Each structure stands twice: as C-alpha cells, then as structure tokens.
Amino acid sequence: MKTLLIDFENGRKSIGSDEKIKEHFGFPPLKPRDWAACDYALSQLFKEDVQEVDVEIAPSVIIKEKFSVVAQRPGVGIECIVYDTFTEAVKKFARELKGTAKKLSLPQWGELKSTADDFLEYTNKFPTNIVMNVHAKRIEDADLGISIYIPNIEGGTKEDIAKWFDFVFYTKVSKDEEGNYQYTWVTKKDERYAHAKDRTDLLPPEMPQDYAEVKKAVQAAGWDNFKCLVIGTPGSGKTRSLRTLV
Fold first, then answer.
1. In whole angstroms, what is the distance from residue 233 CA to residue 152 CA?
2. φ/ψ (deg, to 5) at 92
3. Where are the domains of the chain?
4. Which of 51, 58, 149, 189 has its CA 20 to 30 A from that of 234?
C-alpha cells in the first residue's frame, strides 16, 4: 500500500531512515513545521469540489443533493495517509494561535476546536485509507476504581473525535511467559476504553497490531477504504505498527 507518512514529532525513527521509509511506503515522509505547512502540503495533493446529483425519493419525487468530494490531483497515487500524531499537530496550531501570550483566550479555544474539527471532516472525505495516531491520557476514576484512557488532544475535539473513524483502537503492551513484548490493540469499547470501536464488527476484542487484519475486515465489509484512529501512550506501538501497512 503506497503510504504517505506525515510526521509531526519525529516519531518515524521507529520505522527507519527517511530513505528506508520511502523504499517501504513508496513516498518520502513529510515533516510539516506547523499546522499551516500541513494544510499547504495537502492542498497540493488533493482538491475539494462540490457536486450535485439527482436522488429519487419516490417515483414522482426527485431532489437534487449537493455534497463535497475530495479527489487526488493527477499523478499523485496515494493509497494511505498517516498522521503521526494528531496530538502534536493540534499542539502546533495552539502555539500558533497563542503567539507570545501565556495562554489561549476563550475565542481562541473555540477557533482551535473549530479548526481541528474542520480538518477531521475534510480528511474523512479523502478517497484513501487514513491512519491517525494520537497520544493517550490516563484519568483515574475514583468511583469505578479504574484508569480511563482518552485521546490527549488540546481543546474540545477529544470529546467526539471517534465519530470520524471506522476503527478506533487503543494500544496495549504486555509480556509473554518468555519475557517477549506483545503489542496489541483493544477494538471494543468498555469502561477503560470509551472510544474503541470496529464498524465491521469482524475483529476480535483484542488483537495483534497488524493492519493486514484490518484490511481483511475492510475487504469483507465491501468498503473502498478505511479511517482508523489509534490511541496510545508513547512507546506502545502506534508508529511501530505502521510497518504492517505494506
């Protein structure tokens, strides 16, 4: 799968050198210095247009429906885009908004959420597979006596980010009896992993971090592509698992 890696925090070293990434994925990694640089890069690769189609509601009732479509520009040929990580991308935009001030103003917090939400809606329209990595934040629930993991994203976007994705996985790391590290994904929602989901309903509740299995589920479901959000702490396999995209 020809994959474009957009690296916001230098995590690509988990995969290899830039040359090895280009050899492995088919494209060199992009390293945007800020939010605007990422927007500018994507605008050179994709174009959004508004289309109008006739929709037959009933035999004698036909309405016109307008919707926006994002298409790749000629000759691009991207099959998958990886954002690593959206946590850092939003932080970069927050720093742009804040400037020399010590903290964001209330209107700036609103702009941060609106811009992040618009970006998620836009990237959801891409005719490609999407993998978006975000860091996890642990919250202790005193009532339940458990740790709850949520997306670590500045602003209110973290509350409903999962709605834009077909899959939401949480990363886990454990050791087997021989002391070898096992990297797994949690795919089903429970008290600890409130955003986890699998729209195909074909994946097990917990599985190895392997995108080949995701692609099999997508093919079985008859989809053209998939959008996947991966939530995890640093070192839990988010970037490491990208090797399985090929």
1. 9
2. -60, -40
3. 3-245
4. 189
- pLDDT tens-digit readout, 187-214: 999 989 999 999 999 999 999 999 999 9
Q: Give yes or no for a contact between 153 and 136, defined as CB atoms under 8 angstroms apart.
A: no
Asked if 136 contacts 170 with a C-beta cutoff of 8 angstroms, the reply is yes
CB 50 within 8 A of CB 44: no
What pTM value is reported for the model? 0.92
One-letter amino acid at 135 equals H
pLDDT computed for residue 246 by the predictor: 82
Tell me the one-letter amino acid at 210: D
Three-class SS of the chain: CCEEEEECCCHHHHCCCHHHHHHHHECCCECCCCHHHHHHHHHHHEEEEEEEEEEEEECCEEEEEEEEEEEECCCCCCCEEEEECHHHHHHHHHHHHHCCCCCCCHHHHHHHHHHHHHHHHHHHCCCCEEEEEEEEEEEEECCCCEEEEEECCCCHHHHCHHHHCCEEEEEEEEECCCCCEEEEEECCCCCCCCCCEECCCCCCCEEECCHHHHHHHHHHHCCCCCEEEEEECCCCCCCHHHHHHC
Cα first-last separation, the chain: 5
Identity at 8, one-letter amino acid code: F
d(CA 194, CA 209): 19
* Regions in the chain scoring below 70 on pLDDT: none
Tell me, rounded to whole angstroms, the distance of Cα 77 from its chain centroid: 19
